[in-house]
Write a structure and sequence with these properties.
Elements lengths: L2 E7 L8 E7 L8 H14 L22 E2 L2 E2 L21 E5 L8 E3 L2 E2 L2 H8 L21 H11 L6 H5 L6 H13 L7 H15 L8 H5 L10 H12 L5
Parallel strand pairs: 1-5
Antiparallel strand pairs: 1-2, 3-4, 3-5, 6-7
Cofactor: [2Fe-2S] cluster; [4Fe-4S] cluster; [3Fe-4S] cluster
Catalytic activity: a quinone + succinate = fumarate + a quinol
Family: Belongs to the succinate dehydrogenase/fumarate reductase iron-sulfur protein family.
């Protein structure tokens, strides 16, 4: 399988970047995007050239580290899959692939395809915690929670924070990410004490750093965790609840 790759090359955050063309005559359909880049880098190293920098960790689709754009789409051609699970059989022999970092003003490029996604961490720092009693672990049935609520909380807790939703949004919004965290924590019994404070602080942070939600749904289309678009509604719902509630929670 022959491919032409146009791979983004940028030495640092304060330098201009450019695409570098690489010919790959022996790609395999079962390769993932990351394995393709591994293969390219092996050839670069053998030729005495600097390999392309990109981020990865578990390569099992659960850590959210491997964020990049392929032909302008976060992660790759397949819907709701991270880059490490995107396979070359989605592309044709002789095709040209443009591989670049996740594009967002909130994600400055560190080097090549590695971006700084700490803006998402700052959102979590504003309210991604719960109050718990220190001491020995409580019994499993101490806090009662029905099965349906627990499943809904887990569905939203599945967000891996990859940032694909931000890169897919034409406005660079992080409402799907933030909404998923707000839904998850609002449903958990041990998160009630911070609910109002969490909503105010997290929403303020996301609106300060990221763009407004476009409501087109591009974010849900690329989310590897399958977070539903309805999570976006939690932004206004939780903020309104905090505003009208007499208590902080």
């Amino acid at each position: 399988m022959k491919l032409t790759l146009e791979i983004w090359r940028q030495a640092g955050p304060n330098t201009e970047g450019h695409f570098e063309t690489v010919q790959v005559p022996d790609a395999v359909e079962q390769m993932s995007i990351l394995e393709l880049l591994d293969h390219v880098n092996e050839g670069m190293i053998e030729a005495g050239k600097e390999p392309f920098a990109f981020a990865s960790d578990c390569r099992e689709g659960i850590c959210g580290t491997c964020g990049l754009n392929v032909n302008g789409r976060p992660h790759g051609a397949d819907k709701n899959k991270p880059a490490c699970q995107q396979r070359m059989y989605n592309y044709k022999d002789g095709e040209t692939l443009k591989i670049e970092p996740l594009r967002s003003a909130a994600f400055p490029v560190i080097k090549d395809m590695i971006v700084d996604r700490s803006a998402l961490d700052r959102v979590m720092q504003q309210g991604g915690y719960v109050s718990v009693d220190a001491g020995t672990a409580p019994d499993a049935d101490t806090l009662h929670m029905n099965h349906q609520t627990a499943e809904l909380a887990l569905d939203h807790a599945a967000c891996i924070g990859c940032g694909a939703c931000v890169a897919a949004c034409p406005n660079g919004a992080a409402h799907l990410f933030t909404g998923a965290k707000l839904v998850h924590l609002s449903l958990m019994p041990m998160g009630k004490d911070e609910r109002g404070k969490r909503a105010r602080q997290m929403v303020d942070q996301v609106e300060t750093t990221f763009g407004p939600c476009s409501l087109y749904g591009e974010c849900a289309d690329v989310c590897p965790a399958g977070i539903p678009l309805t999570a976006v509604a939690a932004i206004n719902k939780e903020r309104a609840r905090a505003f009208f509630s007499a208590k902080d929670n």
